[in-house]
Specification:
By secondary structure, the protein is mainly alpha-helical. It is about 70% helix and about 0% strand.
Amino acid sequence: MRYRTSNKRLRTLSDWPSVLLTLAVCLLCRISYYVAAPADVLPDWASSWTFADRILTDRLASDRLSACLAGFVITLLAAYLLQRISDAGTLIREHTRLPFMLFLALTGASAGLLPVRIAVVLLCLVLVIHELFRSYQQPEATGHFFNAGALMAFVGLIIPQIVWFVPLLWIGMYRFRSLSARSFLASLAGMFIIGWIVAAWCLWRHDFSMIAALSRELADFHILSAEKFGYSGIGSLVVVAMLVVSFFHIRAEAFGNSVRVRQMLFFLMNMSVWSFVPMLLYGHSDALPAVLCLPASVLIACFLENLRYGLRFVLYYFILLSLVASFMLQLWTSW
């Protein structure tokens, strides 16, 4: 297999204009969302939970601008951590900021992923992947699995459908050769801790409406229909097409990577495919595509990085423009 050599300093410096342009576009999309779009409606249980009402709502400090900036900062932190995960695991052979840029583009140009609580969800899911990757072939590192389980349970308070991804956590532990009785119980303990805290809070308040609302949300199935898409779904179709191409590319180049990198990339592929199941079952939820953005950012970056420099950024700008166009159509139809 042929590996391309390049001047890394020149390549790194040449990435900055695209990074700054991506940041500017995502910030403008977020500002336009908070200015033009209607206020986001929270689940019923959030109004009775002080923490959710003060931190996870879009009425942060009773100022939409504050909510906009808070969500943008949290998303930036999640993108930075995802970039660090990619670099530390050498998931991409050449130094590039494409995972950072793609993550911002996928999450910053979608109206359903702009509320503050979705930014918190993205940050928690990135931390789950970080804990899982750090536990590679370390079944005795129970702290990583406890943290991953607790983070998954916390995300479940915001998006109850995240329970569908719990088996994927255990599958990843098995593929990374870190699944044991202790690690499995540690992940369960992390989830139960959050559940016990919520149950104790409801018992103290003598109000179980939060648990009831979470159960109703989890049981509220609405199969995804083609009517939800339209011209505003062009960006999503482009991302899915690029993701499929990335699958074939990673499969073809799999044996050129180390076993560790190959297992991590295959886990991200499984996560991408797995995320379509709850998206199809809960078609009314605009938050579930946030889960797909995490693996898609790294997988598409793996494919783009193997293209010629010019073609790489032509495709990236095509993805960015299609997402922005879809976002503007979503805003237009919401007025």
